[in-house]
Structures are given as C-alpha cells and as structure tokens.
Amino acid sequence: MLAFANAKINLGLNLTEKRSDGFHNLETIFYPVKINDVIELVDSEETLCIIKGIEIPGNVDENICLKAFKVLQKDFNLPHQKLILLKNIPVGAGLGGGSSDAAFLIKLVNEKFNLSLSKSQMERYARSLGADCAFFIKNEPVFAYAKGDEFEDMELRLTNHFLVLVKPPIHVSTASAYADVKVRQPITSLKKLIHLPLKDWRAHIFNDFEPSVFAKHPQIEEIKAKLYDADATFALMSGSGSSVFGIFENPVKLQELELENLVFYNV
Ligand SMILES: C[C@](O)(CO)[C@H](O)COP(=O)(O)OP(=O)(O)OC[C@H]1O[C@@H](n2ccc(N)nc2=O)[C@H](O)[C@@H]1O
Ligand SMILES: Nc1ncnc2c1ncn2[C@@H]1O[C@H](COP(=O)(O)OP(=O)(O)OP(=O)(O)O)[C@@H](O)[C@H]1O
C-alpha cells in the first residue's frame, strides 16, 4: 500500500512570541505543493525502515516514519511492517518533507489496518511528532497559529499562477534557525494580509526567519532577488529555509531564470 506525501510552502511566517516551553507561537499560511515522497508499507518479519532517493542525514532508526509507526503501535496491535520511503523532497529545506512523511504514514496505517481514526485523532498523533506534522493530515491551504499546529480553514488557490521553487545546496536545521530569530508582534495579522491582491504581498507579507538566515547564507537572499528580477510577483523563503519560492503571474521562461537548483515548476 502506497502514500504520496507532498511538501508545503509557507506563504508568510510571523514569529509572534517565544513561549515558556521553548517553542514559538507563530502565524503562517501553509500551502501544499506537488512534490512528493512515496511511502510503502509491506508486511514483514520485523519493523524496519528502508530509505531510497535523497540521502537523509542521521540514523535510519531515527527516521520520523518509524517514530510515527511506533507511536501508533503503542495504542494499536499492529503487525510488523517494512516502511519503504522514497525521498524526493529536499531535506533541511523548509518544505516540511519529514513532517509530511509522518502525517502520511499515520493516514496510511489508518487505512491499511482499518483503525477508523478520525481526522482530529490523526492530527493529535501527528502533533505529538512535530509542529508541522498536523497540517499534512488535512493538507489544504490553512491559516495556522499557536506552534503552527492549530488551524483555520481558508479559501486560497494560486491556480492561474506559476510557482518556481529553488533549493540551494544549503541545509538549514529548523531548531538552529529558531535559536537565531527575533520575535515581533505584527501590526496586522497575516490572516487579513493574505487577502490583499498578490501584487501587494511583497510590501506586506514576510518570513521572520529571513533576516537571520540571509545573514548567515547570503546566497539564499540572492536567489530571492533573482526571482524578483525574473518578474516574480511575490518571492519568499519557505519555513526556516533554505528553499525559496517565486509566484509568477505569467509563464516563466526557464532559460531566462539563470538559477541553478531549480526543483519544481508547476501551475
Ligand atoms: C519553520 C516551520 O517549518 C514553519 O512551518 C515549522 O515551525 C517547523 O516545524 P517542525 O519542523 O515540525 O518543528 P519541530 O520538529 O516540532 O521542532 C523542531 C524545533 O524547532 C523549534 N520550534 C518548532 C516549532 C515552533 N512553533 N517553535 C519552535 O521553537 C523548537 O526548538 C523545536 O525543538
Ligand atoms: N523522513 C524524513 N525526511 C526528512 N528528514 C527527516 C526524516 N526523518 C528524520 N529526519 C530528520 O529531520 C531533519 C530535517 O528536518 P529539518 O527540520 O532540519 O528540515 P526541514 O526541511 O525543515 O524539514 P521538516 O519541516 O520536515 O522538519 C533531517 O536532517 C533528519 O535528521
């Protein structure tokens, strides 16, 4: 049985408060993008994880897919499974790949073993694995707040636009990016600002990770500038980086982009 775990981008990210538990309250818009990892569950003599595709730093036994499976195993009598992960989503990219793998693994186990878990029950399991994970249960554009794990539905479709995603060869660790940020209370909530016309986003919608990540990695800021040079209506780093996306109103001429490490181009 297979699952296709897609990535996300953050259309704006305000870090509003450092919490007493060490996490940060934030507001963001999660927007799913069609670049997928593939997860397969196969009956097996023992529970293990096999990774193909892009290399993931760290030990395979620490893979978040395995963690997600074990969390469910505690509550349900699940038989051993081989978890095969084909990794296509760049790692350390702010694209939520690991978080998506965990959420889609939960959905896959729910389906394969007829656990009859509701969406909110699956969200609860996902939330225990990482702040970004819960979003991928629903996997539709949402306004997210608190740790990024509470949601309000929203109507936002970028259809009729063109999305370019660039992932430079830089790994930004989420935890270290959070250690470097400055929090600020925005004057106007992103929930309101996102309804401005796309042409006005550049002046009003920000990612609060950009200043500190750009200071360490000027190459990421250069990519953003190149996307604007190429006529993007809006460009922003996703999550804690290092990937940057550009939203275009007209089809982009790839030849004119002069960007390496282009990973995604879609309507
Ligand atoms: C940057 C984003 O991708 C934006 O969507 C997310 O906030 C990251 O979420 P994530 O990768 O699921 O993060 P987690 O695995 O839960 O946490 C990794 C580390 O990031 C920090 N962290 C994460 C989420 C949050 N709201 N505040 C934090 O301070 C914590 O130090 C935590 O130990
Ligand atoms: N299935 C997985 N996919 C990607 N990374 C994973 C996975 N399982 C564990 N990891 C660990 O998570 C780290 C990547 O997380 P990090 O937060 O730095 O990057 P990210 O691109 O923002 O991804 P995410 O939002 O999924 O956490 C990897 O270096 C690896 O150690």
UniProtKB/TrEMBL annotation:
Domain GHMP kinase N-terminal: 63-137
Membrane-spanning segments: none
Keywords for this protein: ATP-binding, Isoprene biosynthesis, Kinase, Nucleotide-binding, Transferase
Active-site residues, Swiss-Prot/TrEMBL: K8, D132
Reactions mediated catalytically: 4-CDP-2-C-methyl-D-erythritol + ATP = 4-CDP-2-C-methyl-D-erythritol 2-phosphate + ADP + H(+)
Annotated metabolic or biological route of this protein: Isoprenoid biosynthesis; isopentenyl diphosphate biosynthesis via DXP pathway; isopentenyl diphosphate from 1-deoxy-D-xylulose 5-phosphate: step 3/6
Example of a GO MF term: ATP binding
EC number(s) from the headed UniProt entry: 2.7.1.148
Biological process annotations from GO: isopentenyl diphosphate biosynthetic process, methylerythritol 4-phosphate pathway; terpenoid biosynthetic process
Xref: InterPro entries: GHMP_kinase_C_dom, GHMP_kinase_C_sf, GHMP_kinase_N_dom, IspE, Ribosomal_Su5_D2-typ_SF, Ribsml_uS5_D2-typ_fold_subgr
One Pfam family here: GHMP_kinases_N
Domain GHMP kinase C-terminal: 201-257
Binding site for ATP: P90, V91, G92, A93, G94, L95, G96, G97, G98, S99, S100
Keyword set includes ATP-binding: yes
Purpose of the protein: Catalyzes the phosphorylation of the position 2 hydroxy group of 4-diphosphocytidyl-2C-methyl-D-erythritol.
Family as reported in the entry's similarity comment: Belongs to the GHMP kinase family. IspE subfamily.
Record protein name field: 4-diphosphocytidyl-2-C-methyl-D-erythritol kinase
Organism ancestry: Bacteria, Pseudomonadati, Bacteroidota, Sphingobacteriia, Sphingobacteriales
